[in-house]
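Hypothesis: this fold can be encoded by more than one sequence.
Test: take the structure tokens below, design a sequence, compare later.
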């Protein structure tokens, strides 16, 4: 996706003026999200992040800090380098902060293998850094960034996530999907697009030359997580947003029955039809290694592939 540099100053809903009541309502139950004081006023952020393992996703949440560290992220660069970013500004004090932090961690774990990058800043430990982004006393606060720009959230949706969802991970998923996603299901936020309707499933199979669908009992179960992790790792190996095939995830049982698909299983379609030989993975042994081995046969050759690998089958038309 193309990057757009975020503005150096943004309008904000603060304790005074038109938006004051909104902040007050949210503070009592759920932190304000997104439209906050991002007034950098031309200054360069000092934000850094640690730890910085070889694989940042292994830590699930990036912790930003202004302290010295051997391997650091710059906050501005992190926001620009990731299409979708969700940041929590928090304190280690108070029950609300503890509760919000726990829910944020659960959300990040649930969506560990999504396209959304999760990060947080301890506003007590890094006051100087935090005050460039949030007003003092407005912690905990969450901020969403899409293509490098802060995302504005409607006050009515603050109330929705507070009153209907009580700030739960499911509520935050709803909000991220609505504001960061490109469609009602937030398909572009996931490496394996969620498919919930028969019409969409039919279109998905028909419009993609190679379509891979995973069928699961429910989203987030063991098999679904292994599938999502595998698809994510294949993207990381190739360092591409597009691995050459379309991947979807189905957790609606009626759709699995419509396709006569075993649950759990992975089914490969080429030109709208199920691949007859070895086109279905329904092994009793679900591991990342096994699923990876199955999926790789149907991926286009990458620069790292050799001509004697299984992927050659489609080069020779033997699928």
């Amino acid at each position: 996706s193309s990057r757009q540099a975020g503005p150096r100053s943004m309008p904000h809903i603060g304790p005074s003026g038109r938006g004051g009541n909104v902040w007050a309502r949210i503070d009592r139950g759920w932190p304000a999200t997104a439209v906050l004081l991002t007034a950098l006023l031309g200054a360069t952020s000092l934000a850094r992040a640690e730890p910085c393992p070889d694989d940042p996703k292994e830590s699930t949440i990036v912790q930003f800090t202004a302290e010295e560290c051997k391997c650091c992220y710059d906050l501005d660069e992190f926001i620009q380098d990731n299409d979708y970013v969700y940041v929590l500004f928090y304190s280690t004090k108070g029950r609300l902060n503890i509760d919000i932090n726990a829910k944020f961690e659960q959300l990040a774990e649930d969506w560990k293998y999504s396209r959304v990058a999760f990060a947080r800043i301890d506003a007590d430990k890094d006051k100087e850094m935090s005050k460039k982004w949030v007003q003092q006393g407005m912690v905990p606060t969450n901020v969403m960034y899409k293509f490098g720009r802060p995302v504005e959230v409607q006050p009515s949706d603050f109330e929705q996530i507070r009153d209907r969802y009580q700030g739960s991970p499911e509520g935050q998923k709803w909000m991220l999907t609505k504001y960061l996603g490109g469609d009602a299901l937030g398909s572009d936020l996931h490496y394996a697009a969620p498919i919930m309707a028969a019409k969409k499933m039919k279109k998905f199979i028909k419009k993609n030359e190679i379509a891979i669908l995973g069928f699961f009992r429910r989203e987030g179960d063991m098999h679904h997580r292994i599938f999502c992790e595998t698809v994510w790792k294949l993207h990381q190996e190739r360092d591409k947003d597009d691995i050459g095939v379309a991947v979807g995830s189905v957790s609606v049982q009626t759709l699995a029955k419509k396709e006569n698909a075993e649950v759990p299983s992975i089914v490969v379609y080429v030109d709208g039809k199920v691949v007859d030989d070895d086109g279905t993975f329904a092994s009793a042994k679900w591991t990342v290694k096994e699923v990876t081995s199955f999926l790789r046969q149907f991926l286009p050759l990458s620069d790292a592939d050799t001509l004697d690998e299984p992927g050659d089958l489609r080069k020779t038309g033997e699928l």
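The longest helix spans residues 222-238. The two ends are 32 Å apart (CA to CA).
Hypothesis status: open.
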